[in-house]
Structures are given as C-alpha cells and as structure tokens.
Give the backbone structure.
Amino acid sequence: MGAPMQVQDKVAVVTGAAGGIGAAIAQALVDAGAHVVVSDVDEARVVATAERLGAVAVAGDASSDEAIAAMITAAEQAHGPVDLFFANAGIGDGLGLSASDAQWQAALDVNLLAHVRAARQLVPGWVERGTGYFVSTASAAGLLTQIGSATYSVSKHGAVAFAEWLAVTYGDDGVGVSCLCPMGVDTDMLRSGMTSGDDAGGRVAAAAVTGAGEVLTPRDVADQVLAAVAEGRFLITPHEDVREFLRRKVDDHDRWIGGMQRYQRHLRESTR
C-alpha cells in the first residue's frame, strides 16, 4: 500500500480529459471538492469540458514537456502546487507488424513517456513536500496483452512497469502511486475500433476487449480510481476478471499463450 490521499481541496491535473475516462475522473474530482486542471490535444472539447466542470483548461500534447509544464503552471497560478497528476491520455494507433516507426513512437510517447516526463517535473517537489500522488492510466493490456495491437500492448506494459518503479522508489518519501488497468470502457477509442470499417485488425482488437467482459461506463471507472487513491492502493482493476486472468498467466505462461491463440482464432472467425 502507498500513501493514501483525500482529494477534497487538493489540486489535480488530468490529461486526456476532453472525454472518456479523463473527463469522468475530472468530474469525480470536482464532485469530491478538488481543484482541477484538464488537458487534451483537442482544444475545443477540453475547453467545453472545463467550462462544464468549472475547471481550468490547458490544450496541448500530454507527451510534450512544454505542455506538461503549462499544465503545472496553470494549476499553480489558479490554485497552488499540484497534489495529484492523472496521466490518462492514451492512443491506440498502429496494429501489428505493419505499424510504422512513427506509430510506434507516438504510442510510446503518449502511453508511456508522457508519464515519465510528468513524473520528472513533479516527483522531486513531492518528495521535498513529503506528499503527492501519481495515477497512471494503463490497461489490462499492460498486464496481459492486446490481441491485434502490438503498439498498444507494449506501450501499456511499459506504463505499468514505470508505475511500479515509481511506487517502489518513492513510496517511502510520501508519494502515492496507482495504476489503472481496465478492460472495456465505453470511450471513443473503443468505439472507433468497433466501427473501423475495412480495418480487420482494428475490429479484432476491439472485439477482443468487448468479448472479454462487461464494457463499463467511464464514471464507473472514475469512481473506482478515486476510491483507490483514498486507500493508497496501487493496482486498479475495475473488471474483476483481470486479476484472475493475470494469475493464470503467471501460473502457466505457455498455457495462457495457447488460450490467447485460441481466442484470437475465434475472434478472427467471428469478425470476418
């Protein structure tokens, strides 16, 4: 267990907050009495979200050092030092071996290195103050795999590993860390894969998620995130089956791979 944090009157930054999980986390934070800065690459949507919530909006690329600095500055000017950072922005571009180097780099930048760059700017100050909280939005794909998308699976594994490292390294310094690893959540990213037209790989990737368990609402997930922060709990798995799938993977890796291969064959047949 890490250092728990009550969010009332705290200052929080949420990336990828124009919609989906990010907007739901921002709403849950506001409902709980936090002061919130929301950021997204989609300026029009994030401004609309901020206006709806009474939050501060900062448009920008969550993987950019400059954009992260702008989020922190906006929070400090409006409310004071940042207490919590929700590294939620994510992308799903790039599927199998056909993914380009540019798609690989984008996935690593947004899904992993954005977390590293934010932590680099915030954690030293938190250690000095003796308090702070970092929440990484990864995915069940970061614990298991993502059928159909190498870029997503690998970058999300990296996000989980970095969050683990942060927790181990800075937990004794008062820094709390949680890592969100859901399966299907009703977001634009999932819907775009489900309606990807002639993109068979995208349809298989989306079907792998929707077929594995219930598709939750973003608010369902956000409420579980804030509960974990209040408890100082590292791993957040809104879908209970994820922990069982992970146990099976660890118990017998070869058997787990065989099962995933069978599941992939089924998905390919059913999405033709």
